[in-house]
Amino acid sequence: MTHALAPKLLLAALLAVAAELMFASMGATIKVLSEQLPSASVVFFRNLLGLALVLPWLLRSGAGSLGTDHPRLHILRGLAGLGAMYCFFYAIAHMPLAEAMLLKVSAPLFIPIIALLWLAEYVPNKVRWAIGVGFLGVALILRPGFAEVSPVALIALLGAVLAGLAKVTIRRLSATEPTTRIVFYFALIGTMISALPLAWHWVTPPPTAWGLLVAVGVFATAGQLLMTRAYALAPAAQVGPFTYSSVIFATAYGWLFWGELMDLVTAVGATLVIIAGVMTVRTRRQPTQKEKPKPTSEAEPASSVIR
Question: Minimal CA–CA distance to 106: which of 149, 142, 157, 171?
Fold first, then answer.
């Protein structure tokens, strides 16, 4: 049995790493785009392209699949995910790519806290230790006391909190809502709300930006497809740790194209965040006796919420 599963685990790991390469490439492309367009415009076109890609999927499912009894949860998921996207795109434009990616992948540290406060989910002791280690890593990246905390870094950290909230909302919705409906409403809400700021601050993309905008959509879609396939082949606890490879790719992109180097303190903080994230992902959730098990959506990992 173990030997039969080994090839699937290896393929799942390779697909997860390939997905993170796509997501890091998306981040690098966004950083280039930020020199030509404001973050608000990039967020809008990212959501518009996402909606265009979702529509054919929706047509196959039929318009009748859109009926929902949880509009408020869809709105909360949409607002949280869109807010995380704004924070992440802004952070990419104004701080080193690797540091922005590091703070973004700290989202799993907030998921158990939000799930505890909102869904009363039990948090195992090992996860509590992991959260403490992860926050120590975040503190080293932010460096309070050593230097003035960058407002941009705080915005990136806020994005991680919002991404965690979005994932917990997906967990709540997945009990009754199919993936098609969740994805569609997120794309629709994201496109509609991100279009509002452009009403008074429209910037026409230059000819060179259109190709980059399409590339962002292609990288994001390819990454989501690869990651979804990876999670279909192996359990989340075994695939999850490989999602942190995006930090390695982001560091490489930052060094190659912008000469960004990670200092020792940030590297130590990055190591702690990654270790904590892996511990959090690999620890199985153990519900209390009073808590009824809730189905979770394994096809969409926390790191893909804002992509």
Answer: 157
pLDDT of residue 224: 78
- The H-or-E segment that residue 285 falls in is none
pTM over 0.90: no
User: What is the C-alpha separation between 152 and 140, in angstroms, rounded?
Assistant: 15
DSSP for residue 235: -
First to last CA, the chain: 35
User: Which residues of the chain fall below pLDDT 50?
Assistant: 1-2, 284-304
In one-letter notation, the amino acid at residue 2 is T
Q: Whole-angstrom Cα distance, residue 155 to residue 10?
A: 36
- Of 227, 222, 231, the closest CA to residue 304 belongs to 227
Bridge partner residues of 147 (DSSP) = 144
Helix (DSSP H) and strand (DSSP E) numbers for the chain: 12, 0
Return the closest-CA partner of residue 37 out of 259, 260, 209. Answer: 209
For residues 186 and 118, the answer to whether their CB atoms sit within 8 Å is no
Collapse the DSSP code of 147 into the 3-class scheme (helix H, G, I; strand E, B; otherwise coil) and give the result: strand
104-153 confidence digits (pLDDT tens) = 888 888 888 888 888 788 888 888 888 898 888 888 888 765 556 678 88
